[in-house]
Amino acid sequence: MASSLHKRYIVHPYKFNLWIGIVSMVMIFAAFTSAYVVKKGDTRTWEHIHLPSIFTTATIVIVISSLFMHAAYMAFKKGALNLYRGFIVTAFILGAGFLTLQIQGWNTLVNEGHGLTDNVAGSFIYVISGAHFIHVVGGVIALMVFAVRAFTRLKTTESDLMKTNTINIEVMATYWHFVDFLWVYLYFFFLLNR
After folding, report:
1. Given Cys at both, which of 63, 101, 134, 169 links 58, Cβ 3.0 to 4.6 Å?
2. Domain range for residue 56?
């Protein structure tokens, strides 16, 4: 009944809500990065900060995680349950690894004398990367739910998997690709605007 109800929509409500959320996030991070550029112009208070190399590692990890998320989505669509399980668990582990690397990156900044309130540039890095961190936490929690469900709620046969609605995994994949792309943008933004 619910699936037939959604057939009348041009865009599924889950996708529509996701895209509204993505547009909102783009506006927030555009505002953050714009404020960063404007404040950087005030050379009296701005201190150039070298981005720790661990952020490079975190960027590689989140890109690889996005590849595994895509592979999980494709495996789900094809009904390859075992592949889906492996890929979704790997995407979750890499997502959690990204969060760990982010925390280590912040610790490195603190050890180099760039705490949250030590200078304006450092404050921006913490606020912007921290806001992104929160969005990734939400994604990692969702990935964990998908990974658990892959082993508990999905049946063991591929035909049963094919009967499962793919909209949830599609929305998850879209969100995960977005936060991954957003971090890549922020990473290069920080590198080019020190």
Report:
1. 101
2. 2-192
Please tell me the distance from the alpha carbon of residue 58 to that of residue 132, in angstroms, as a whole number.
13
Q: Report the alpha-carbon distance of residue 75 to residue 3 in Å, rounded.
A: 22
Q: Over the chain (194 residues), what is each successive 10-residue block's mean pLDDT?
A: 55 78 90 88 75 94 97 91 94 97 94 79 89 96 92 63 72 94 94 81
CATH of the domain at 22: 1.20.120.80
Q: Which long-range contacts (CB under 8 A, 24 or more apart) does 110-115 make?
A: 112/50, 112/52, 114/49
**What string of H, E and C letters represents the secondary structure of 28-88?**
HHHHHHHHHHHHHCCCCCCCCCCCCCHHHHHHHHHHHHHHHHHHHHHHHHHCCHHHHHHHH
Matching residue, tokens 């690397």? 101
| CB 54, CB 104: distance < 8 Å | yes
End-to-end CA, the chain:
54
